[in-house]
Amino acid sequence: MTDGWNWRQPGGAPAPAGPPSPAPHAETGRDAGSPWWSDALADPWRDPYAPAAVVVRPPEAPATAPEPVTDPDASSSRGMLPIVMISVFAALLAGSLGGALGYAFAVRSGVGGGTVLGSTDNEAPAVAQRPPDSLAGVAEKVAPSVVTVRAPSAGGLSVGSGFVATEDGYVITNDHVVEGTSGPATIVFNDGSTASGSVVGHDPESDIAVIKVSRPNLVPVQFGDSDAIAVGDPVLAFGSPLALANTVTAGIVSALDRTIQSGEPGGQMRYYAAIQTDAAVNQGNSGGPLVDGAGRVIGVNSVIKSLAADEEQAGNIGLAFAIPINQAKRVAQDIIDTGKARRTVIGATVAERSPGGGVRLAAVDAGGPAAAAGLKIGDVLTRLDGRPLEQGTDLIALVRKYAPGSVVTVEYRRGSAKQTASVTLAADAK
């Protein structure tokens, strides 16, 4: 191995023959023709035999520095640069933050590309299970028993409601729904199917009628006890208001024994000791069931109060009245059994309202219930079974509520004395 300064053939062998080397340098004795020594004299670091010396040069005169040039915009540019950088950084930060928040809200809201709506499992959604005593549960239970009644008459087509009372096809509705019927009624069921129905009988004064249809697999309603309900109890009204079939509305019992007189002047008068409700009832609901929170029928929707003078323009204002089911069921049973209903009477005729309150007896039927209880003409009846009597309609409506044979307590005044009598009500002779 050699460093290139003095190379020899390994083993001391002479170098191969070749062209003659240049003469050695006069001062160093080195080969001046060698590329290693061609500039050795000028490079003291190349030749270790070259003499070393430190040369000190005299200082040169400093060159005159050029006059500095000032950029008039340089200072303002350097002053604005930090502001621009801060603005850009703030914009980038705000954009990044806004994008992150937007994405987060989109993910939480289920919006955005790639978002899967609903469950990711393969199971079918569970069917909602509603308790039987919920409003929806009651509606589902009662709806198959509710019908729409279309009764032809000389004046056109009367549309009302009704409900199935027996498995063999008896349907209860209002008398005024089938009043003047000129042929069979069409009964429309909850599923849209229809059947022809014939009127078995009706009682104009109680406003109850019975229709018979021939159809298998009918589902009758469950009857409740209208004497067991209280103000504030929840109720549902079923029917076809304004011909809108399968309608259900909800409310409460607003009042009990609300005495109602309905009918056109000179025509048939009807009397009710009614259940008042704020459930929405309109024309077409007539004859439909009013049910309690357990789905039991407690009344037959019959009358509404309205501010409209024209009955055709009347609409719901939260004042609707239903015939108590205990009375309606009794009347319907009489119609089914005998073709007509018995009317409950007290055997007396009432005069105008007494100035001191109560109703005065203008006549007492000989041998009738009132006479048998010792009541006389001129007696002022003030209460019937604890319910106040303010006008003649109150006495008639309350008496109609009871079945023949019922015993009621009557409070009355005879002169200045207050007395009490027990009256056994009876059926009229008609």
TrEMBL record:
UniProt entry tagged with the keyword Hydrolase: yes
Region (Disordered), start-end ranges: 1-41
The keyword Glycosyltransferase is annotated on this UniProt entry: no
UniProt entry keywords in alphabetical sequence: Hydrolase, Membrane, Protease, Transmembrane, Transmembrane helix
Transmembrane segments: 83-106
Single GO BP term: proteolysis
Domain PDZ, first and last residues per copy: 335-390
MF terms (GO), sorted A to Z: peptidase activity
SUPFAM superfamilies: PDZ domain-like, Trypsin-like serine proteases
InterPro entries on file: Chloro_Bact_Ser_Proteases, PDZ, PDZ_sf, Peptidase_S1_PA, Peptidase_S1C
UniProt name for this protein: Protease
Source organism per UniProt: Phytohabitans aurantiacus
